[in-house]
Automatic annotation (TrEMBL):
<dbReference type="Pfam" id="PF00218">
    <property type="entry name" value="IGPS"/>
</dbReference>
<comment type="similarity">
    <text>Belongs to the TrpC family.</text>
</comment>
<feature type="domain" description="Indole-3-glycerol phosphate synthase">
    <location>
        <begin position="5"/>
        <end position="254"/>
    </location>
</feature>
<dbReference type="InterPro" id="IPR001468">
    <property type="entry name" value="Indole-3-GlycerolPSynthase_CS"/>
</dbReference>
<keyword id="KW-0456">Lyase</keyword>
<dbReference type="GO" id="GO:0004640">
    <property type="term" value="F:phosphoribosylanthranilate isomerase activity"/>
</dbReference>
<dbReference type="InterPro" id="IPR011060">
    <property type="entry name" value="RibuloseP-bd_barrel"/>
</dbReference>
<keyword id="KW-0822">Tryptophan biosynthesis</keyword>
<protein>
    <recommendedName>
        <fullName>Indole-3-glycerol phosphate synthase</fullName>
        <ecNumber>4.1.1.48</ecNumber>
    </recommendedName>
</protein>
<dbReference type="GO" id="GO:0004425">
    <property type="term" value="F:indole-3-glycerol-phosphate synthase activity"/>
</dbReference>
<dbReference type="InterPro" id="IPR013785">
    <property type="entry name" value="Aldolase_TIM"/>
</dbReference>
<keyword id="KW-0210">Decarboxylase</keyword>
<keyword id="KW-0028">Amino-acid biosynthesis</keyword>
<dbReference type="GO" id="GO:0000162">
    <property type="term" value="P:L-tryptophan biosynthetic process"/>
</dbReference>
<keyword id="KW-0057">Aromatic amino acid biosynthesis</keyword>
<comment type="pathway">
    <text>Amino-acid biosynthesis; L-tryptophan biosynthesis; L-tryptophan from chorismate: step 4/5.</text>
</comment>
<dbReference type="InterPro" id="IPR013798">
    <property type="entry name" value="Indole-3-glycerol_P_synth_dom"/>
</dbReference>
């Protein structure tokens, strides 16, 4: 099977460089400077002190599943997730493979009070500026996508703009790299980004390599309250949940049910 990660990264870089060529950098920097980040990591930590911190994901499509939700209003879903108890919102902004956009990020950021993560394949510092200007409070950096020096460069750019980082890993070697580079919010993704297959056992096997001083985020393959309970017992603080929620008639109500919370629909 072809390496899907390399395919997506190549396209992401070309698309980012094309946008950069026509961007008004000065205007974007003014917009970025006018925004104050809402503290993605701090809010995950605060919520995790009393229960699971869920990063609820606005996701229209994926390379492995195709279109997940035909009727897609990310701002409406984000408000519903906030009402359902989310600690943060993740927004897919990749256009080619996930049918996302930066306009979705802008709409979601304006619609909620909780922090927002730009979920994309960040391969160029320009994308970090894009994220802040569009209203993100954090970005995703994928260890498997970069050499260490590139991760350091992108992390420095994120910190320059006051953005937090969710550092995504898939195995022990990647976790060790993330820790050595000083990342303090580390996700373990049970989805193999080369084949797009999911193995939930990865989450259980990898959590022991994450020290208690980092925020430990479980990603992919989380569908039931029992999954959250099991992974909390294993040591995770936060949970990124997307497809499970987006396939339901009322994603906000589904999240509230997972968290055993009362819910009033915002959709």
């Amino acid at each position: 099977m072809a390496n899907r990660l390399d395919e997506i990264l190549s396209h992401s870089l070309l698309a980012a460089l094309a946008r950069k060529e026509t961007a008004d950098i000065a205007a974007m920097e003014r917009q970025a400077n006018a925004r104050t980040a809402r503290g993605f990591r701090a809010n995950l930590r605060r919520v995790a002190e009393s229960g699971p911190a869920v990063i609820a994901e606005c996701k229209k499509a994926s390379p492995s599943k195709g279109v997940i939700r035909q009727q897609y209003d990310p701002a409406s879903f984000a408000r519903a997730f906030e009402a359902g108890g989310a600690a943060a919102i993740s927004v897919l902004t990749d256009e080619e493979f996930f049918q996302g956009s930066l306009s979705h990020l802008e709409a979601v950021s304006a619609a909620v009070n909780i922090p927002v993560l730009r979920k994309d394949f960040i391969v160029d510092p320009f994308q970090v500026l894009e994220a802040k200007a569009a209203g993100a409070d954090a970005i995703l950096l994928i260890v498997a996508a970069h050499k260490n020096e590139d991760l350091v460069e992108l992390a420095a750019e994120a910190h320059r703009w006051g953005l937090d980082i969710l550092c995504e890993t898939h195995d022990r070697e990647e976790i060790e790299r993330a820790l050595a580079l000083g990342f303090d919010t580390i996700g373990v993704n049970s989805r193999n980004l080369k084949t797009l297959t999911v193995d939930p056992q990865t989450l259980v096997e990898m959590v022991s390599y994450l020290p208690e001083n980092v925020i430990r985020v479980a990603e992919s393959g989380i569908a039931h309250a029992e999954d959250i309970e099991r992974l909390m017992a294993a040591g995770y603080d936060a949970f990124l949940i997307g497809e499970t929620l987006m396939r339901q008639p009322d994603p906000g109500a589904t999240l509230a049910l997972l968290l055993d919370r009362q819910y009033v629909s915002e959709v």
